[in-house]
Amino acid sequence: MTRNKEDYIKEIYKLGGAEEQINNKQISEILNVAPASVTEMLGKLQKEELIVYEPYKGSKLTEKGMDAAVTLLRGHRLWEVFLIERLGYTWSEAHDDAEKLEHVAPARLIDRLEEYLGFPDFCPHGNAIPRADGRIQKPNLKSILEMKEGEASVIRRVTEENDLMDYLQELNIHIGSKVTVEKFGALEGPVTIRLDGVQKQLSCKAAGMVFVEM
Ligand SMILES: [Zn+2]
């Protein structure tokens, strides 16, 4: 499969395409491609029996498509564990290089890597790592923006966007950090939080992309 096709399959899976039909608009937005190109690619993926595509309704992954998506995501997230834990990468560096490695590593290598790393359940950004049979943990999380003033929780996941990850690492935010919301700034201003006991300001946009236990 080409890298481009693999990216489609992976994003459809992440949007929930294992369970429901994902519409073209969602796919074109997340991959940042024109709707016409999306339609063309979905036709190709259907021909290869990776998805079932219904015009005006959307795309759902077939079993074959799901297997491919799971292998890619396992690769991505396991490489991230390896790069960060063993090679000292930053969050965004690991995400970038995992994006390349996921397309070239065969399933056998990914399985060995998983064993070598001790079967981790989550990547360093808090995304669940599917097992080889597709089982995946689905923790119930909400964003910091959905918390109330005075509420405390634990950070469990951050959105994998490089600018955001660099910003969060500079603020010393970790998966597992204890966070209390002290005050939401007026008019979507910065959120004042207490992080592992230290007061910090978090931009409103970032607060919507950091997830905590419910
Ligand atoms: Zn990750």
UniProtKB/TrEMBL annotation:
HTH dtxR-type domain ranges (all copies): 1-62
PROSITE patterns documented for this protein: HTH_DTXR
SMART domains given in the database record: FeoA, HTH_DTXR
GO cellular component, one term: cytoplasm
Keyword line: Activator, Cytoplasm, DNA-binding, Iron, Manganese, Repressor, Transcription, Transcription regulation
GO MF terms, alphabetically ordered: DNA binding; DNA-binding transcription factor activity; protein dimerization activity; transition metal ion binding
Source superkingdom: Bacteria
One Pfam family named in its UniProt record: Fe_dep_repr_C
Primary location group: cytoplasm
Signal sequence range: none
Subcellular location: Cytoplasm
Family in the record: Belongs to the DtxR/MntR family.
Subunit structure as annotated in this protein's UniProt entry: Homodimer.
UniProt xrefs under PANTHER family: IRON (METAL) DEPENDENT REPRESSOR, DTXR FAMILY, TRANSCRIPTIONAL REGULATOR MNTR
Protein name: Manganese transport regulator
Top-level taxonomy: Bacteria, Bacillati, Bacillota, Clostridia, Lachnospirales
